[in-house]
Amino acid sequence: MTIKKRFLRPSTVACAFLCSVSAGVVCQPITAKSFTIEQVMSSPFPSELTAAKQGSTVAWVFNLKGAANVWVAAGPSFAPHQVTQYQGDNGQPIASLQLTPDGKTVVYARGTEVNAVGRSANSTTDPQQPKQQVWAADIGKGVPRLLGDMGCAYEGCEDIKISPNGKWAVWAAKQELWIAPISGAVKAKQLTDLQGDVSTPQWSPDSKRLVMDVNRKDHSLIVIADLTGDSVQAYHYVAPSVDRDMFPHWSPDGKSVIFIRTPGFEDKRPLIPVRTITWSLWVGDAQTYKAQSIWKSGSQSRDSLPNFAETSLHFGAGNRIVFDSEQDGWSHLYSIAATGGEPVLLTPGDFSIEDSSLSADRKNVLFSSNQDDIDRRHLWSVSIAGGKAQSALTKGETIEWTPVETGDGKSVLCLGSTATTPALVYQVANGKRELVTKNALSKDFPSAQLVVPKQVIFKSEDGYTIHGQLFMPKGQTKPGPGLIYTHGGPPRQMLLGFNYLDYYHYAYAENEYLASLGFTVLSVNYRLGIMYGHDFRMAPNTVWRGAAEYKDVLAGAKYLQSLPTVDPNRIGLWGGSYGGFLTAMGLARNSDIFKAGVDYHGVHDWEVFLPDWEEGATSAPDLKEAKKLAWESSPDSSVSRWKSPVLLIQGDDDRNVPFSQTVDLAQRLRDNHVPFEQIVYPDEIHDFLLWKDFIHSYQATAQFFQQHLSEGK
Predict the structure, then answer these.
(1) Any residues with CB less than 8 A from the CB of 145 and at least 6 apart, and which?
(2) What is the spatial distance between Cα 561 and Cα 34, in angstroms, rounded to a whole number?
(3) What pTM was computed for the model?
(4) In which band, very low, low, confident or very high, does the pLDDT at 431 lie, cut at 50, 70 and 90?
(5) What tens digit of pLDDT does each residue of 606-640 get?
(6) CB burial of residue 551 (10 Å; 0-12, 13-18, 19+)
(7) Alpha-carbon distance 485 to 340, whole Å?
(8) Which CATH number fits domain 10-30+450-708: 3.40.50.1820, 1.20.120.660, 3.30.70.260, 3.10.450.750?
């Protein structure tokens, strides 16, 4: 669908758009009580923390006000050093950051994945179309050299892998693998020529072979390629079958590969019942290409392929394999001998693991979890052999994620935050963390003015226990306006502090800003979210099958209405993506409760998504019933009951939720005489690339709620 771009970028028209729909509204500037949205959004967001295989060098990406750059540090002092020098709010993210084994060169992808017509995002509307490209830079010189174009076709596809000898970089693009010398002596060339979509490349320890996943739609295969330099000499299929094989890894000695197998495509399968995706662990011989199953899941819902299956699969020392399973109701790490046998539970308890990585000697797993602190993250270490208690690396009222151990095994670093301190880089030792990026925060970052959100727990009408974070305005003495915030995903969790994902890190900052303006904000971790157990994440009758999670939003509103500092007649809600869907649900179904809302790139009609999101939907015997159920679970089906004003915000190059979802909703609102306002960002994507678009949207959100939830409205 082609959208004609007839809109000015909103930052050029100030607050004029707010008066464009509702006549008579006077635009008033937003005046924060103690800080501005620019100040609370001024910190550089760190990501992509990685360590070299040798020595003590680590690298990460800092995104400062829209300019993403690579930084490095080396032990024992870990003094930060900026490698690249990209300037300005340029809309070019950096991902898949890697260090060569010797720690002397960084390799990374810059730019965004391509959309359906093969174009990378151009949020700055540059006359020269940007490309997603692979770059390398020596950390001492910092002058990037182009290795080649990437052009991934789907979100999160960046997957650069550096050969163990440090000579080659390989990545997936245009459904094949591409290879380039890290020296930049020659540009990248296509390495593979295989039927299907090639992904997840992994180098053998001797740098002479690659293992990869080849997706052929109804089944997928594990392929080993023999290399001579930058050319393939032979392909070998590992135990090919009618099933889907994925996430291959080499053993440390290069003699075998491990992978996960799930069932292949099944035609004419009913849509409405939720399907359990059973799975098994396989070990393949890298010489004979035969494989055997060493572990199989059960057939119940909790046995389904877990959320962190890909990132939690490791081949460790002692010929042991680490994997994630929710078989006891929680996402836990297990280890098993590569020859099979009984798995060992490494992380017992009522909590879930998230990030995990192997120690330098491959004997331990470092991981983040919400053990003993369900609405935060802390770091732990455990032996992959089992039999030893977990060791807490951090604890207290802080939040930590992405643990990495340096190649020399002497140091552990991570990313971390608190309720009033944004994400930064830390070194972890003796149960404490020490700030590495000491000078990263601007002097006017308003830590002292931020509120510490309170953990609140309440029940939904059907008995689910719901966790939330309550932002109370300082000095609140009389009833004021209240807001519900709902995250996207939905497999996400908002925390009692700055979040570990940039999109929600910024949303946390906005909730702090709204609290500074006098709004009591309740962030609701509704069912479908992670870290509260499998049964919570996979609750029945949710999403297009009934939208039961909306009950948790209503429960949050009821909780807000019970607070003496909240006027029960002045409650609004906001959120993005899945949170935008729940915002629209609140306004469509309960305008009597929710008096205003801000819907960022939300889903409004589930029926449209069935053919793309549910495999085999077009041949399903219950397709008619599924379409009816999906429609009835959508905000669009209740537009006739929608009375409250809404602000719609979306970029028209959104690759996650089609822009047509907002276009269609706007027409329905017009037909039903519902007051709405809009911000359209031409060429912007789902997770905004430009810092100024976040700033403008968040200012507009606060302005909108001030206008519609003020006393007397």
Answers:
(1) 135, 136, 137, 184
(2) 26
(3) 0.94
(4) confident
(5) 999 998 888 889 999 999 999 999 999 999 999 99
(6) buried
(7) 46
(8) 3.40.50.1820
